[in-house]
């Protein structure tokens, strides 16, 4: 969004022979990178690594989804995207379920996704990676740069467990 807004503003200004309308930024991406490197080093980094090692201890390395072809010897990024839209009424019911359980629509969809993955794989320990925004400071809102982090969301899907119980676990 930042890139599109800036290119649009610059194009309109330059097409009319005006100078750049963009304000000077208080920080640059290099400033953010340096701050992040300082923040995530030494003892702080060790604490973070120890936390995630404990949280992910014993998690399966691979989600054993049934596949129609053998896995390639060398991993690649070949794949596809399938877009779809949920009907508004279903979306509202899912949102309501999340609200009733003290969660969000995202949590309901994540719990459903983890339940489905568990069913297809037969694995009860399911980890899903989700991109999260890394723009935690107001100064970075106008910067173009890679601010995304991937958060591992792990759930234990138990036999006979209700969906609401799984949702409460996902919420936690």
Give an overview in words.
The chain is built from six helices and two strands; from the N terminus they run αααααββα. It has helices at residues 2-15, 29-39, 42-56, 88-100, 105-121, 163-171, and strands at residues 125-133, 148-156. It has a two-stranded antiparallel ribbon. Helix 4 (88-100) packs across helix 5 (105-121). 8% of the residues are buried. The mean pLDDT is 92.
Itemize the secondary structure elements and their pairings.
Blueprint: H1 2-15, H2 29-39, H3 42-56, H4 88-100, H5 105-121, E1 125-133, E2 148-156, H6 163-171
Antiparallel strand pairs: 1-2
Helix pairs in contact: 4-5, 5-6
Domain Condensation: 1-171
Pfam family, one: Condensation
GO molecular function: catalytic activity
Helix content: 40-55%
Strand content: 5-15%
| Order of the strands making up the biggest sheet | 1-2
- CA(first)-CA(last) distance: 31 Å
GO molecular function: catalytic activity
Domain Condensation: 1-171
Pfam families: Condensation
Protein name: Non-ribosomal peptide synthetase
In short:
By secondary structure, this protein is mainly alpha-helical. Helices cover 46% and strands 10% of the residues. This is Non-ribosomal peptide synthetase.
Structure characteristics:
172 residues, mainly alpha, two-stranded antiparallel ribbon, 6 helices, 2 strands, 10% strand
